[in-house]
Amino acid sequence: MTLTRICSFSVALTVALAIALVVSTNPAFAITQDWQLGFQDAATPVAERLHSFHNFLLIIITGIVAFVTVLLLYVVIRFRAKANPNPSMTTHNVPLEIIWTVVPVLILIAIAIPSFKLLYYMDRTENPEMTLKVTGYQWYWGFEYPDHGDISVTSNMIKDADIDTSKGQIRLLSTDNPIVLPVETNIQVIVTAADVLHSFAMPAFGIKTDAVPGRINETWIRIKADQVGKVFYGQCSELCGQGHAFMPVEIIAVSKEDFAAWVEKQGGTMPEAKVTETSATPVTLGSTVEAPAADQPAE
Ligand SMILES: [Cu+2]
User: Fold this and answer.
1) For 130-178, what is each residue's pLDDT tens digit?
2) Do 296 and 188 form a contact (C-beta atoms < 8 A)?
3) Do 163 and 264 fall within a single domain?
């Protein structure tokens, strides 16, 4: 096999691999599909950016793997004992050594800059319109809506025997109390745990945040407008004991109007227009968020 052939074969393989991994399916439900390649569809801007960062890295690593493979094959064939009976005694090549030091450094810088930008983007939303408090328990999730009259919802997995597929329930993922979130809303999510470590993960939202007893971690969600009516599933992602695999998260994305109706049904109240006084709520952690709703009780 000539070097040109090896090269073109590697390039073809690289392109095919990249296309196969980048192309994602378009599931009707926001869950992982059989034979799916790639991620679940992105339902938030964070997930969108994570996917494009992933695709960017995929191109870089595919290029590196292809380059190293071609180089190795070339060396193995060209410099084998039969083809090259008198090996060169060269031990140093200054320009080459500079290149193979500088190029990897440049590649790492090219990765680090978008990586840090994304990390800070994912960290928190500057203008939260509402807060969702998530608490991990052994082995279920508690959700509170402090801005909506302290609604509190406990979500347990539906047991296998009680799963009703005619209602669209999914084994190991459906819960008895799915939580409801509005689309097009900056939702500040604060995550904690009441017993051991858990992790609140929702693949379609691009979030996975550790739930640590005695501490509050923060993340955020803004569900895109075209996701109305979709049901999203996530799971605890920190080994938390015997029931770890049985504490799914089920979130239904609804329009703002439907969310207000749901809040009312839960016995909560929609917050009035936000006041501009300084927030006294500890959950804001010294951020520059707007003050909480006027009817939010002091904590
Ligand atoms: Cu857990």
Assistant:
1) 999 999 999 999 999 999 998 999 999 999 999 988 888 899 999 999 9
2) no
3) yes
In this structure, are 35 and 119 located in the same domain?
yes
Q: What is the count of structural domains for the chain?
A: 2
Distance 156 CA to ligand 1 centre (A): 12
Same domain, 135 and 234: yes
Q: Distance between CA 213 and CA 205 in Å, rounded?
A: 23
pTM of the prediction? 0.76
Q: Which residues surround ligand 1, an ion (CB under 5 A)?
A: 198, 236, 240
CA of 246 to the centre of ligand 1 (A): 8
CA distances from 103 to 59, 98, 107, 108, 260 (A): 16, 8, 6, 9, 55
The CA distance from 60 to 246, in Å, is 37
pLDDT tens column, 279-295 = 444 444 444 444 444 44
81 lies in a domain? yes
Whole domain around residue 69: which residue ranges?
Answer: 3-123
| pLDDT tens track for 204-219 | 999 999 999 999 999 9
Ligand 1 geometric centre to CA of 209 (Å): 12
